[in-house]
Write a structure and sequence with these properties.
This protein has one helix at about 5-30, and strands at about 35, 50, 55-60, 80, 90-95, 100-110, 125-130, 135, 145, 155-160, 165-170, 175-180, 185-195, 200, 210-215, 220. With about 220 residues, it is mostly beta strands. Strand 11 and strand 12 (about 175-180) form a beta hairpin. The chain is globular and about 45 Å long. InterPro entries: B30.2/SPRY, B30.2/SPRY_sf, Butyrophylin_SPRY, ConA-like_dom_sf, PRY, SPRY_dom, TRIM/RBCC.
Length: about 220
């Protein structure tokens, strides 16, 4: 909680410096929620190729041999983050190379992995989708977004208790879209390069033992 003096100072700074201060303050807040995400090789579609460090994904030249998993996508070219998120606030960033087709967001543990059904909130998916001339939030029906907001570096912010998933264009600190929902089960980051040229890279964060708690796929970080 903020004490009265801190609140007065923050209000003064907002009044004096306006949007620039608010943007920097919010950016710092997001950094306190940073998580280090890696990809789960038991979920990727056979046509997706993961890097050895499980931080990059793109469409492969050929279908790869993968082990059987009930969590693996067999139709949509998707892959999930390693661990599920069940409480708290999280923020991660993704570099998107070559300006191709992609879909990025979060999905529930029980969402459909088999076949090509709709990927919208009623089905347990909260994502944004990009093609060459279109940019949408995958609501029902879809919400068209300005092409000027298409990012090269995308920030995703999840507040589980508040039921919010927000997307940001990191290079301009611009808000893209926010979904609201009532989450009741684990959520997993979702990544889908939808053509052969798109390369998705998960940004890494610097983690120290005293500033993080470690799980198999996620390091919860503090920014010093």
């Amino acid at each position: 909680k903020l004490n009265r003096q801190t609140i007065i100072i923050k209000r003064y700074l907002c009044k004096q410096f306006g949007t620039a201060y608010r943007q920097k303050a919010f950016q710092f807040y997001l950094c306190t929620c940073l998580v280090d995400i890696t990809l789960d090789p038991m979920t990727n579609h056979p046509w997706l190729q993961l890097s050895d460090d499980k931080r990059k994904v793109q469409e492969a030249l050929n279908e790869t041999e993968v082990s059987f998993s009930t969590q693996r996508f067999d139709s949509w070219p998707c892959v999930l983050g390693w661990d599920g998120l069940t409480s708290g606030r999280y923020y991660w960033e993704i570099d998107i190379a070559n300006n191709g087709y992609w879909r990025i967001g979060v999905t529930t543990a029980s969402s459909k992995r088999h076949g090509r059904g709709p990927m919208n909130p009623p089905e347990g998916f909260w994502t944004i989708w990009r093609s060459t001339r279109q940019f949408y939030a995958c609501t029902k029906p879809e919400t068209e977004l300005p092409l000027s907001l298409v990012p090269k570096k995308l920030g995703v912010y999840l507040d589980y208790e508040e039921g919010q998933v927000s997307f940001y264009k990191v290079e301009t600190r611009s808000h893209i879209f926010t979904f609201t929902a009532n989450f009741r089960e684990k959520l997993y980051p979702l990544f889908a390069p939808l053509d052969g040229r798109t390369l998705i890279t998960l940004s890494s964060t610097e983690v120290t033992p005293e500033a993080s708690s470690h799980r198999s796929g996620i390091n919860v970080c503090k920014v010093l």
